Amino acid sequence: MASILITGASGFIGSFLVEEAVARGMQTWAGMRASSSRKYLQDSRINFLELDFTSPEGLKQALAKHRDEHGAFDFVVHCAGATKCLDKAEFDRVNYEQTCRFVDVLRALDMQPKQFLFVSTLSVYGPVHEETYEPIREQDTPCPNTAYGISKLKAERYLQSLPDLPYVFFRPTGVYGPRERDYFLMAKSIKQHVDTQAGFKRQDLTFVYVKDVVQAVFLAIEKGVTRRAYFLSDGKVYSSRTYSDLIKQELGNPFVVRFTCPLWVLKVVSCISEWVCKLLGRTSTLNSDKYQIMKQRNWQCDIAPTIDELGYQPQYDLNRGVKETIAWYKEEGWL
Length: 335
Fold this sequence. Notes:
Layout: E1 3-7, H1 12-23, E2 27-32, E3 47-50, H2 56-70, E4 75-78, H3 88-108, E5 115-119, H4 147-161, E6 167-172, E7 174-176, H5 182-191, E8 194-198, E9 207-209, H6 210-223, E10 228-232, H7 242-250, E11 257-261, H8 263-280, H9 288-295, H10 304-310, H11 318-331
Parallel strand pairs: 1-2, 1-4, 2-3, 4-5, 5-6, 6-10, 7-9, 8-11
């Protein structure tokens, strides 16, 4: 029975990865903080491993203990990370420094897996082909404009610098689905009869349903690929209104007042929101990083290598994915 460690297991993507690993009969270890919720990790076949990435010594002790009792992991999926932080330096600490530390400890303990699968982001490329709206390709030069994207790119480059590390990078576009909280805010706003669009210039959006992200990860494990990077989307391109229109449809077409907000207004509001939340010691969904994401006009990406090399075939377009997601939000009482 192959063993797999999934970090960030209590999170949105991580919990779905754990479910799939268990369904495949793998010896599944959910790596998470002691304080993290296990709400979506109720299957009795899940093993738990408490990992504190902030403590080098504590991390080393936990992994060494596991090695001595159970051996090394065949596969490691590193999904732990931060998408919102109190300050930009925290993105570096969590997404970059802690990833480096994790890999260094695995290697020092002779626990390097057959594959180290790293969940990165399309944001490592930033605004590319903004005038031509061509798909972002692997050959393009990354120029991230968010602290989040920069931290993920730095982590990627460190992993690439290790000549014998069998890494695989996944660079998903906007990931949505049940349990996700940021896109949920749009559904909540539409239920309250308000929909806000960012900017007046054409914006091409792409999405990927969480279960298709999971599909790609396990296809990479099946294929045994290493030292490769893959973009993930559902293969389609959507206008800026498509997502909200589908949410509106699934909510029974409530009356909605639509606002198109100039980018300069969004920038001011985002900066103020970030500043206020920082004073209150809270992270803000609307912040300077989020503004850069809303400002970006081209989110197309080339998934042809993902299809050709992994056999990846997205099972969810936006219509099917939104339908399933909104149904889950309703069932769970979120909407």
